[in-house]
Design a protein that fits this description.
Layout: H1 17-20, H2 22-32, E1 38-42, H3 45-49, H4 57-63, H5 66-69, E2 74-76, E3 80-86, E4 92-98, H6 102-107, H7 110-131, H8 141-149, E5 156-163, H9 171-189, E6 193-199, E7 202-208, H10 212-218, H11 221-229, E8 235-243, H12 249-273, E9 276-280, H13 281-285, H14 297-307, E10 313-319, H15 325-333, E11 341-343, E12 348-353, H16 357-375, E13 382-388, H17 398-409, E14 417-419, H18 422-435, H19 438-451, H20 456-468, H21 472-485, H22 490-503, H23 506-519, H24 526-542, H25 546-559, H26 562-579, H27 583-596, H28 601-613, H29 618-631, H30 636-648, H31 652-661, H32 669-682, H33 686-697, H34 704-715
Parallel strand pairs: 8-9, 13-14
Antiparallel strand pairs: 1-4, 2-3, 3-4, 5-7, 5-8, 6-7, 10-12, 10-13, 11-12
Helix pairs in contact: 2-7, 17-18, 18-19, 18-20, 19-20, 20-21, 20-22, 21-22, 22-23, 23-24, 24-25, 24-26, 25-26, 26-27, 26-28, 27-28, 28-29, 28-30, 29-30, 30-31, 30-32, 31-32, 32-33, 32-34, 33-34
């Protein structure tokens, strides 16, 4: 019988709770300890020491010993108190209270502080019980409302809504999807934000003090791509942002509702855009601020009347940072014939009759030099030139081409003069892609390929966009075209490798990933190299090439900063060490993996198998493997490990059931057959056992270790 899919929660206070519920826990301590002005929590001694007087540091160090923390506090003059709390894993978090009235500090008794400590801990647990959603183990919507009702008074804060629907409508899949999403989102967010499950398949991330540049980079296309790679069926992300400020209570509630509504509107827009998309409400709310927002209709009409009868012309858009269009037009117009310079409050467009793009470029450069000489300054006026005729563009598109060329010129700095070309379309496509508008991005990339069919960057960009729109066959074709033009193109190799992983063609992806690592250069970017290393190491693990996986994983782990960043590699390091026969080391890595994510089914089941093989207790091994299968019943590798432990525990009927359920996974079929042979041996049926061992020896790509095991059982 399959178990109920929502396990009971072991209600204990953990280290991360002091981050998630820091506001509530601080309030509890301020209420219980009179006059405390500020409360901060520290899980590491080295961080706490930076804010303590020299004479207190030695005493503070003792507090991080769980045996001492249960009954000890540190009072330091004139207004400070350190109060330790032992969490569920026998780790310690120390609360530092400051700003206390010296008279109160002087009269504090240790017995009273011990009572406060115990009562506060009970209050902490009560808060957690009301703020955690049982299915995912994440914070619930009540906690999100509490955070939004106490926004920071300074610095930006952001709300991100994520929709991750399950592939089917079954309740079983919905529960599994929620737990898997919780793990994936926490791995993506780390300590930078707080993840919530709002119900159904909608999640929320609350982020404080993250600058707009970092936010746009991490919580736009990158977040969608990471979740897509994790195998989620659909990914939609909507976000809204605010600057922190002090507001009256009524205004705070209004601002809370507005922030939620904006993020929700952005999420609905993302849903309409495609299967893997995102949207920032600021782009929806202020289209006039978009870099590709067109000039005013009045200005376009004036320019259109000028070029409507012309068979060859160029338009030039000029811009200078901090200058209005009228001011720049007054300066430029003195050097042109009447009726060739048009302007509105934001834009200046020049009309040049009967010239090519190159000729227009020369004229504009000379014009800008003249302006510099006239004013006696380096004005650094930028210019974007759009020529007609050009490729298959009609006249009405030339003003937009000028703007795209102007944005292209921004890469060269102020004062650049750039002609519109295929690269300009790559840049405008990237802008739309960065907004989450994949349809417009795809259109820009395709127009760019009309201008330059062999542009490898455009082919790669178009392929990535196709993949995000779930059009994987045409994406693969785009990457292959790029590779045919440039056989050592890193991005094409990397993207083809990802595509082969998605198709289950592991050997094909191995070829692409290994070649990509060979041709990598610094210009390709450090972040993408790190991701390639991790993807390749995972692939080596899946293929049993553990000697190749280990150095890659160790390099990746050592380069990561902090537990959250190194977390994704921990389970694979455990799996690799186990595959190399280094079981003691595997145990350490798997224990670390479970500290990173206590509900990782693969880490749980593999750690259980290690405990069994190392003789550390069949019952704990059975409990861990059972938990791994309970969390992910469809994972064949976890079922196989449970069956191995059940065979060791003489639970042969249960083991046979689990082995039958995981026979569909061809990658582990020889191991399953070995286990079935062992099972029949235990039942005293050697002939049937030998038939299973013979099937093992007929397998292709059989590892020497497994072949030796099968032959050994047959001989005995």
């Amino acid at each position: 019988m399959e178990r109920f899919p929502i396990p009971a929660i072991d209600w204990t206070v953990e280290n991360q709770d002091f981050i998630r519920f820091s506001q509530e826990y601080s309030r509890i301590l301020r209420e219980r300890i009179p006059t405390a002005a500020a409360v901060a929590f520290y899980a590491e001694l080295k961080v706490l020491e930076t804010v303590l007087p020299e004479e207190v540091r030695a005493m503070a160090a003792d507090l991080f010993d769980p045996g001492v923390a249960d009954h000890e506090t540190v009072i330091f003059a004139p207004d400070g108190l350190l109060l330790p709390f032992v969490t569920g894993r026998r780790q310690v978090v120390v609360a530092r209270l400051s700003g206390l009235d010296p008279l109160v500090v002087d009269r504090m008794a240790k017995d009273w502080l011990a009572e406060v400590q115990a009562a506060a801990f009970r209050d902490f647990l009560a808060v957690k019980r009301t703020r955690i959603e049982a299915v995912s183990g994440l914070c619930n919507i009540t906690h999100l409302y509490a955070l939004l009702e106490t926004p920071p008074e300074t610095g930006p804060f952001h709300l991100v809504l994520i929709e991750l629907p399950p592939r089917t409508r079954s309740s079983r899949d919905a529960f599994q999807n929620a737990r898997r999403a919780a793990f994936a989102l926490q791995a993506c967010v780390g300590d930078s934000g707080i993840v919530h499950h709002l119900g159904q398949c909608v999640f929320a991330i609350f982020l404080r003090d993250m600058q707009d540049e970092d936010f746009s980079e991490r919580y736009g296309s990158k977040l969608v791509a990471l979740l897509k790679r994790d195998g989620f069926y659909r990914v939609h992300v909507g976000s809204s942002s605010r600057m922190g400020e002090s507001l009256p209570k009524a205004a705070i509630e209004e601002e809370r509702d507005r922030l939620l509504s904006e993020a929700w509107a952005a999420l609905q827009t993302a849903e309409r855009r495609g299967p893997f998309t995102f949207c920032d409400y600021r782009v929806l709310a202020h289209p006039e601020r978009h870099p590709l927002f067109p000039p005013s209709e009045g200005l376009i009409c004036k320019v259109r009347r000028k070029y409507s009868r012309s068979k060859q012309f160029c338009l030039v858009e000029l811009a200078k940072e901090g200058w209005a269009g009228d001011r720049l037009a007054n300066l430029v117009g003195r050097h042109l014939a009447p009726g060739l310079c048009f302007a509105d409050a934001a834009s200046v467009i020049l009309f040049l009759e009967g010239v090519t793009g190159r000729e227009a470029h020369q004229q504009v450069v000379e014009l800008l030099r003249t302006l510099d000489r006239e004013t006696g300054a380096d004005l650094q006026v930028s210019a974007g030139i759009g020529a007609y005729p050009f490729a298959d563009f009609h006249k009405g598109e030339i003003p937009a081409n000028c703007r795209k060329a102007l944005l292209h010129g921004a890469f060269f700095g102020p004062g650049a003069v750039v002609e519109f070309d295929a690269v300009s379309l790559n840049i405008s496509g990237d802008i739309y892609y960065g907004d989450g508008d994949l349809s417009k991005a795809m259109a820009e990339y395709r127009r760019g390929l009309v201008c330059d069919p062999d542009n490898v960057n455009l082919l790669n960009s178009l392929g990535v966009t196709y993949a995000m729109l779930d059009r994987h066959s045409v994406a693969r074709e785009s990457f292959r075209k790029a590779l045919a033009i440039e056989p050592d193109n890193f991005m094409a190799l990397y993207n083809l490798g990802l595509g082969e992983v998605r198709r289950g063609e592991l050997h094909g992806s191995l070829k692409y990933f290994e070649r990509a690592l060979e041709v990598y250069c610094e210009d390709d970017g450090l972040e993408i190299r790190k991701d390639l290393q991790l993807q390749l190491a995972k692939l080596y693990c899946h293929l049993g090439l553990f000697d190749r996986a280990y150095p890659l994983l160790m390099e990746w782990h050592d380069a990561a900063t902090g537990g959250q960043q190194s977390g994704p590699a921990l389970r694979y390091l455990g799996e690799t060490c186990y595959g190399l026969g280094r079981k003691e080391e595997a145990k350490i890595w798997l224990q670390k993996a479970l500290r990173f994510n206590e509900l990782d089914p693969e880490a749980l089941s593999l750690l259980g198998l290690v405990y069994m093989e190392e003789g550390e207790g069949h019952q704990i091994a059975l409990a861990l493997c059972d938990k791994g299968v309970e969390l992910n019943p469809d994972n064949a590798a976890s079922r196989l490990r449970l069956a191995k432990v059940q065979i060791a525990c003489d639970m042969l009927a249960e083991a046979r059931q689990n082995l039958m359920k995981c026979r569909g996974d061809k990658r582990i079929l020889p191991e399953i057959q070995v286990c079935l042979g062992q099972l029949w041996l235990k039942l005293g049926r050697k002939r049937q056992a030998d038939r299973w061992f013979a099937k093992v020896l007929q397998s292709h790509d059989l590892s020497p270790e497994l072949a030796g095991t099968a032959r050994g059982f047959m001989r005995n």
